[in-house]
Design brief:
- The protein is mainly α and 111 residues long.
- The chain has one domain (2-26, 38-110).
- The chain is built from 6 helices and no strands.
- Helix 1 (2-26) runs antiparallel to helix 2, helix 1 runs parallel beside helix 4 and helix 4 packs antiparallel against helix 6 (97-110).
- The two termini are 19 Å apart.
- The relative contact order is 0.17.
- It is found in: Membrane.
- This is Major facilitator superfamily (MFS) profile domain-containing protein.
- One of its GO terms (biological process) is synaptic transmission, glutamatergic.
- The chain crosses the membrane at residues 6-24, 74-91.
Length: 111
């Protein structure tokens, strides 16, 4: 069980941090090369921090829910939902930054 939890936390941390790495390649850099997405620094900051807005809100409710349901099932469901939402990132980032921010908030709520 401990190994599965470790793998779950690795996935969770990867999902949490991969956007910061991907945005560097997806957006226009300081060297002037144009990326796929034309976001300014404020939008990039909002997308990167949106996860933590949702994450912050669910800490206490998550503890209460975990006292009523098996923590292992909740943990697995949270990782699965966050991974599914992470798959939508390329689609939403090309569509609209506001939708991307909303998906990142949902990821934070899931975890």
């Amino acid at each position: 069980m401990a190994i599965l939890v470790m793998i779950g936390f690795l996935i969770s941390f990867g999902i949490r941090s991969n956007i910061g790495i991907a945005i560097v390649r997806m957006t226009k850099g300081k060297d002037g090369k144009k990326g796929e997405i034309d976001w300014d620094r404020d939008t990039i900051g909002n997308v990167e921090s949106a996860f933590f807005y949702g994450y912050m809100v669910t800490q206490i409710p998550g503890g209460l829910i975990a006292s009523k349901y098996p923590a292992s099932k909740l943990f697995g469901a949270a990782i699965a939902l966050s991974a599914i939402l992470n798959a939508f990132f390329p689609i939403t980032s090309k569509a609209n930054s506001q939708i991307t921010i909303f998906v990142r908030i949902l990821q934070g709520l899931a975890e």
